[in-house]
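seq:
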Amino acid sequence: MRISLENWETACRLQEETPVADLHLDLPGELLFRRRAGERDVIAQKYLPVWKKAGIALIGAAVYLEDTCLPESGLRNALLQIEALKQELRSLEGKAHLVRRKADLDRACAGESIGVLLYLEGLDFLGTDAGLLDLFSELGVTGASLVWSRRNLLASGCCRASENKPVSGDLTEAGRCVIEKMGELGMFLDISHLNDEGMETVLTEAEIPMLATHSNAREVYFHYRNLTNGQIDLLSDRGGIIGLNACSLLTGSWRGGRHLEWLRQHGMYLLEQAGGEHVCLGLDLCHHYELARRELEAGEDRGYDALADHGELALLTAAFLEAGVEKGQLRRLLGENAFAFLGRVLP
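struct:
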């Protein structure tokens, strides 16, 4: 895709001026892998420089559990991931902080320190014990999805990104109780990995703030992990937001490349279908995570990431400018919508 110098420079300025938010990164799990391998100061060395270059003010740090952790060690692994993240934050000496309340969010928005929003990508480790959420709330967890792309005792996840098939099953009674408990604790519900039946239930029945942290449009690329028009409409009608996902398996660019074109197409469609106040970033960049768990070797390509890292975000911003998206709309997509949603949710 051709990017003009003018739009590139404008994109860089926009990201300097706008507090940028990416609501989905599997950061806690990567930190645990790397710290077990003896690495320290991972955020300072691998992330802070590129975050600053991209204008990142807020990162959504999702606790994701590998299949091998379940069921026996899921709870232990989740707690270890959170501790690994907190150890890293302590070593940063105020350059990044955990976002638990609106005051923490305001610090990030003002550029005082990069905010890290901690939430749970799947609640397999709960079993049916909603009471465990009290512990995680005290640890700074602000929200959760009921499932990752697998079935648990609460609900049915949609298919994995590497698959593309329908998955049946609705929320269980335990799942409904967990959502009620999350509401009592002031948590948000992330619906990105729910299957279609589960989405229908929560979008029409659940009384809790909800968003899709990292999802694309099924109308642009047919994949059961992407959102239908009906799901997009219901979520936006409830005041929710949708995080644009840079996984090429979900954008459709994994076979033929043209990553920016496909990613921009999903963003343009979501802006039109959901409305400009309901789209944000949830890039789900997994390359560093996959390196940490040794699925990729150093020097290999970017895996399935449509962007190599946050440093390439300006290319996407410039691509939107090339398509005629106005600067005000881009500011909302880059961060303002995410900050506004969380400002309504956090205490």
